[in-house]
Q: What sequence folds into this?
C-alpha cells in the first residue's frame, strides 16, 4: 500500500468525524409560542438536513405548520402556516415567511403575530425565536 493510500485510509474517518461535528454545531434550535384563549403552547424544533415540516396543534381549533427552508440562495427561511378547522378539515388562513439567516440567538424573529379567523371570530397569537 502506498503512503498516500495509508494517509487517506487513516485521515478519512477523522475528516468525516470533524465535518459531522461542525455541521451539528451550526444547527439552531427554534421555538414558537402560540396563544389562544389565554393558553400558551410552546414548541421547539431544530433544522434538519432534509426538508421536514413540523405540524403543531396550537389548540383544538388552530393548527400551525412551521418549517425551516434553505433555498438555493443559501438564506435560511422560517415559514409559518396557520390553519383553522372548517367543515371538518384544515383550511389555510395565514402564511408568513421570515429570513432567519442572520438572526442572533435568543432573538424574537417574527414579532408577535395575530391570526384571525372571521367565521368564528377566533384569534390566535404567535411568535418564534432562535435559541
A:
Amino acid at each position: 500500500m502506498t503512503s498516500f493510500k495509508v494517509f487517506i485510509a487513516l485521515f478519512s474517518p477523522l475528516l468525516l468525524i470533524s465535518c459531522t461535528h461542525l455541521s451539528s454545531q451550526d444547527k439552531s434550535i427554534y421555538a414558537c409560542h402560540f396563544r389562544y384563549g389565554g393558553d400558551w403552547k410552546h414548541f421547539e424544533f431544530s433544522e434538519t438536513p432534509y426538508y421536514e415540516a413540523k405540524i403543531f396543534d396550537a389548540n383544538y381549533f388552530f393548527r400551525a405548520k412551521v418549517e425551516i427552508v434553505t433555498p438555493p440562495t443559501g438564506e435560511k427561511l422560517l415559514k409559518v402556516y396557520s390553519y383553522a378547522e372548517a367543515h371538518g378539515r384544515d383550511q389555510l388562513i395565514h402564511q408568513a415567511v421570515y429570513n432567519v439567516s442572520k438572526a442572533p440567538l435568543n432573538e424574537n424573529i417574527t414579532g408577535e403575530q395575530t391570526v384571525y379567523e372571521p367565521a368564528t371570530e377566533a384569534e390566535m397569537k404567535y411568535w418564534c425565536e432562535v435559541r
Remarks:
- The beta strands are 29-36, 39-46, 53-57, 62-69, 77-86, 89-99, 107-108, 113-117, 122-130.
- The chain has a mean pLDDT of 75.
